[in-house]
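can u pls check wat happens w/ iron/sulfur/oxygen hybrid cluster
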Amino acid sequence: MFCEQCEQTASGQGCHQWGACGKSPQLNAIQDLLVYCLRGLAPVVLQAKSLGINTHNVDVFTCETVFSTMTNVNFHEKRFVEYIRQALAYRENLKTQIQAISNVPSAWSEISNFQPDFDGSLIEQGEQTSLKFITESGGDVDIFSLKLTTIYGLKGLASYAFHALELGEEDEQVYRFVHETLVAIDNQNLTLEDWVNLALKVGEKNYRVMELLDAGHTKTYGHPVPTSVPLNARKGKAILVSGHDIKQLAALLKQTENTGITVYTHGELLPAHGYPRLKETYPHLYGHYGTAWQNQTKDFPRFPGAIVITTNCLMPTHENYEDKLFSVGPVGYPGLKYLPNIDHGAPDFTPVIEKALALPGFLEDQPPREVNVGFARNTVLGVADQVLAAVKEGKIRHLFLVGGCDGAKPDRNYYTELVEKVPSDCVVLTLACGKFRFFDKQLGEISGLPRLMDVGQCNDAYSAIQIALGLANALNMNVNELPLSLILSWYEQKAVAVLLTLLYLGIKDIRLGPTLPAFISPNVFNLLSEKYNLKAITTPDEDLAACLG
Ligand code: FSO
Ligand code: SF4
């Protein structure tokens, strides 16, 4: 196998024997086979679109299935075999429709005629497509690097597009771009410059997708407002919801009304508490339990109720909690109970409710403890005058955006230490699961503003970007001239998509860690550092001194 799409890739060079995430070589091969089939489907979809054939269900399917190949989303080979069958069925159906209205018979390329042998080993066939993909780059390390950057960024974009769609927000141009990019992977004539441009185009389109997602969240649930979230449990039956999917959380809240069950968020769902309409409608959405995704193996066994995982990152499950764990959407694991959508894009959560009622729940109230969320763009830009006055008066010397993913590696302590060492006249904005390294620290206030502000999930990167652009606009300066430093942590492909968006927007001096992506070749990294001054993190002291210098 070969996979180097995430930060924990083996030895920082690629997983060859077994995925450090728990992905087997067999699963990797089947996932590669699915991507190959989607690449063959894409030209047919584009041709269908040009003839005015409705491809919406295929567009949605493509986003969902690309999402499912991301790190720590779906470990279930069977689901991927179903996806492959479905991709081929869509492809052949579209071909028939095209044939019916087009006078000229279409000559499809090899990839669009590819037919796996379902009686043979799909794993071997997947391995062949993986090998083909590697050799297609003709040994050019930099083009290969940019191809991987493009595909990995596209995976992140597809996952955000899937979330936006769930909330009723979509853009045909985005779907078209997804298919065009899958087609471009096959193009042997693109130069290094073309590939750089395509990778940045992924960033550009991802910006649009994140705007849609922001619109979906804020139109449906209102703009997040500062909200204090209990970190202590209260007595009673309980359900824990993890992942990013606020729509699925809302569906579960609706189905658990009047059951007496208390609902807690886990991981990236913490910011859900900031959405006023969600809190007002469902008072049994109570608190937050546990920390980041990689701590599921500690948090889940201890939780005395049922658990639902809505998106990545799913840790390979463990027998001491898998009986009470359920997955929905694109998430899966062999043996894990999966709840398919049945009605208005939501599953029937009855098995989760029954499990929660059968489990003991919390036997007593825990001592109070809380964190604050809800510092998204509307809140922060709503006090922009206050922020800017504090900056002008020198009360706020600098802003740090410390955001991104968490993970198991000990070198992620860098982010905790950095936040602890940020001088008291500086503000820290944060988003995504990396914040769990410091989210409950009491950093106090400056001029009535909290020194630690949680913008939201990684899905809310759009909001963080709007804050930066809004402040720059108010100060009449370029965003790169703001007293703001971006110190990012990455783990999987959503973070790749966000990084490409930041580069597309021309944002410079980003510090990235805990290690640089293995798929970025030295030449490609030099190119990015020359153009954008992108750099690797060093030590908290050194980086703080450089940012404040
Ligand atoms: Fe974290 Fe996982 Fe949100 Fe990622 S839970 S690591 S960038 O999936 O998506 O931040
Ligand atoms: Fe390795 Fe990451 Fe790929 Fe898993 S997703 S196989 S850990 S590179």
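Residues 244, 267-268, 293, 312-313, 405, 432-433, 457-458, 491-492, 494-495 surround iron/sulfur/oxygen hybrid cluster (ligand 1) (CB under 6 Å).
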